[in-house]
Write a structure and sequence with these properties.
about 210 residues, alpha+beta, three-stranded antiparallel beta sheet, two-stranded antiparallel ribbon
Length: about 210
């Protein structure tokens, strides 16, 4: 009887230790995994934002279509300017002036070759723009764009791209942790429960909510 009691006590102690371990380890694992996944999502959001800004530079608006944005990056060009001669070269500058030319020339360059510099980005990475990293291409960013008239009657293009936490965090292994995180963001801090840049409610220079 005494031996049976000792076995039951040992099992209970092991069970208690396991419960305590889970209570301590789960938040640590959740924080580490959340940090890793957020970093991947932010990196792609930055690339999307870079592409949207370049699109706006050329077309004076943003686009809400990933098809349009991807096509722009992969097939379109931007017109840039460069100096023809060194402005410190007085002889060359005099020759340009005599010829009635300005010391600037325009040239075109492929969008993908310039806007992400010095970072290199592949065609395959651009084609994945719409997908939230870490979701096996099952979840897509929510991309919206439009035109906003301010109180001072200034018309400005706006864009917003977002990824809710529930779309890229592990809601199976960390169900309660994700619920708590979303509740905290929405009800305690009055913030968007996810990652995003831009705003449809006003011009904010396409700021990211992680910045």
């Amino acid at each position: 009887m005494k031996k049976l009691f000792q076995i039951i006590l040992a099992v209970a102690i092991i069970g208690l230790v396991y419960v305590i371990y889970i209570q301590i380890a789960t938040p640590i694992r959740f924080e580490a995994e959340t940090k890793e996944k957020k970093a991947m999502v932010i990196e792609r959001l930055k690339d999307i934002r870079t592409a949207e800004r370049a699109f706006k530079t050329k077309y004076q608006r943003f686009t809400a279509s990933f098809d349009t944005l991807v096509s722009f990056v992969l097939t379109d060009t931007l017109e840039l300017e460069r100096k023809i001669v060194d402005e410190d070269d007085s002889v060359a500058m005099a020759m340009l002036k005599k010829a009635g030319r300005k010391n600037v020339e325009k040239f075109k360059i492929a969008v993908i070759d310039t806007i992400f510099a010095p970072k290199k980005i592949s065609r395959e990475e651009v084609e994945q723009f719409r997908y939230i990293p870490g979701t096996d291409n099952k979840a897509q960013f929510i991309l919206e764009a439009g035109i906003l008239t301010t109180e001072s009657k200034v018309v400005i293009p706006v864009v917003e791209c977002r990824a809710p936490y529930k779309m890229f965090l592990d809601t199976v292994a960390f169900r309660q942790e994700v619920i708590n995180l979303i509740d905290d963001e929405e009800n305690n801090f009055n913030r968007y429960a996810g990652l995003k840049f831009g705003s449809l409610e006003g011009g904010n220079n396409e700021a990211g909510n992680w910045e």
